[in-house]
Amino acid sequence: MFGKVTVQIKLVEGDSAGTVTAFYMSSDGPNHNEFDFEFLGNTTAEPYTIQTNIYVNGVGNREQRLNLWFDPTKEFHSYSLFWNQRHVLFLVDDTPIRVQPNMENKGIPFPKDQPMGVYSSIWNADDWATQGGRVKTDWSHAPFFATYTGFEIDACEVPASVAGTESAKNCSSSGVKRYWWDEPTLAELNVHQSHQLKWVRARHMVYDYCTDTARFPVMPVECVHHRH
């Protein structure tokens, strides 16, 4: 509950069309919260796409997609999720690529009362993953390998027996107890990070649910308030 989770991944080389390598955090139950990195494979020499998504109380549909500024199949790069009561950050090599601020003051729910586990998987999603499902998995290239190293969790460990609201209290700074993720400097992006995020969005973003008017004739509430 709250803190930072990082894993270094080297993605599927060559023709990875149809595959999705996922690294994510999720709580349990039907009204779960979830923070997703999904790496959408592609045909040889086409760029990999990262899709991020956030579920709050069981509801997702908050996808963003980026093309990367490097080839993620050639060497390890670090992918991190940073979570505190102010925001959720998605980071690639410590560059923020997405921030979801706490907008509870606008009546928008924020994931802060459910402990989460950390997961990873690789799976076949050729009905949608590559060029909208037009390009299928070529099984003659199987098996498909993603490789992991440098796994780090610097976060508040929560016993399974403790209720989520109790855990949230225990994992927040109060009185003499100071947690690093509650430091005031981590309540929002610093100037350098803000510039990095602007650069990523301007140069590398290929899809943002907040601008998909065909899918959302009425703009999702958080998009209206959260302008970059």
Automatic annotation (TrEMBL):
Its main location: secreted. One of its GO terms (biological process) is cell wall organization. Residues 1-148 form the GH16 domain. It is an enzyme of class 2 (transferase). It is found in: Secreted, Cell wall; Secreted, Extracellular space, Apoplast. One of its GO terms (molecular function) is hydrolase activity, hydrolyzing O-glycosyl compounds. Its EC number is 2.4.1.207. InterPro entries: Beta-glucanase-like, Beta-glucanase/XTH, ConA-like_dom_sf, XET_C, XTH. The active site is at 34 (nucleophile), 38 (proton donor). The keyword Iron does not apply. Keywords: Apoplast, Cell wall, Cell wall biogenesis/degradation, Disulfide bond, Glycosidase, Hydrolase, Secreted, Transferase. Gene3D superfamilies: 2.60.120.200. Belongs to the glycosyl hydrolase 16 family. Catalyzes xyloglucan endohydrolysis (XEH) and/or endotransglycosylation (XET). Cleaves and religates xyloglucan polymers, an essential constituent of the primary cell wall, and thereby participates in cell wall construction of growing tissues. This is Xyloglucan endotransglucosylase/hydrolase.
